[in-house]
Amino acid sequence: MLSYRHSFHAGNPADVLKHLVLVNVLEYMTRKEGGFDYIDTHSGAGLFALNNADAQKTQEYLQGITKLWQYQGSNTALTEYVSVIKTFNHGALDFYPGSPKIAEHCLRRQDKGWFFELHPKDLQLLQENMHGKKSLRVRGEDGFKGLLGLVPPASRRACVLMDPPYEIKTDYEQAALMISKAYKRFSSGTYMIWYPVVSRQRIDALELALKNSGMKNIQLFELATEQDTELHGMTASGMIVINPPWTLKKTMDGVLPELVEILGNSDAFFRSEQLVEE
What is the pTM of this model? Predict the structure, then answer.
């Protein structure tokens, strides 16, 4: 299909959750001196101008990053996330970085970044946005398959973000299958799967597939800005993390209630669960 463009959705509540988890995982990975590989299976364009026609058509960022832009609370994780987004702006909120640019910001000289994108226009933009660093490699290939070609990495350390568009219903099954295959090749990697809640049944099936996969130490973090409904679009999104940093669950237990209060309506809720024990 290749019709999905993240430029319509940049900076929305789903991005806030996804990138807050990503920043925390990357910060943890960089605590050790040794290099690691970051693999982004569905990268998108990498950087989004919020004044362009796509972002202005939906204005989803107004319900997400805009509400956090002047955050003055005491939650360190939220403060650090907003600080990262601010490095791509000069005072006003004009740009929102996708996961590739957030990764570029966090990765060090000894780390490697691998970015996959199939959409022709977004691939071109991604190549332009990530140009200049030999340690960051952009590939116009299927990220599901590309992941399997990179594990186990030579560094013996890696974290993976799998963020498919879910245009095709089988993407849910494919995400679980490919992460499971990668885990069998490299069981010590940290794997992150982002998912949208459009149909709760699909998420239940995704969770069940991961529980039955044989993988250990799986955590789930979900942010719902309203109650589940079958009537319209995405009501929530989540991040499932295999082999998470030992600090992540405590961090998300502290940050999710505050995100519900800031970003959600009266029916908003969150989930922070250990799906599979270590």
Answer: 0.97
**pLDDT, tens digit, 9 for 90 and up, residues 128-178:** 999 878 899 999 999 999 999 999 999 999 999 999 999 888 999 999 999
Q: What are the residue numbers of the active site?
A: 163
> Which class would CATH give 18-48+99-276?
alpha beta
How buried is residue 168: exposed, middle or buried, by Cβ count under 10 Å (0-12/13-18/19+)? exposed
Quick: pLDDT tens for 214-241: 999 999 999 999 888 876 788 899 999 9
Domain ranges of the chain: 18-48+99-276
Distance CA 218, CA 131 (A): 34
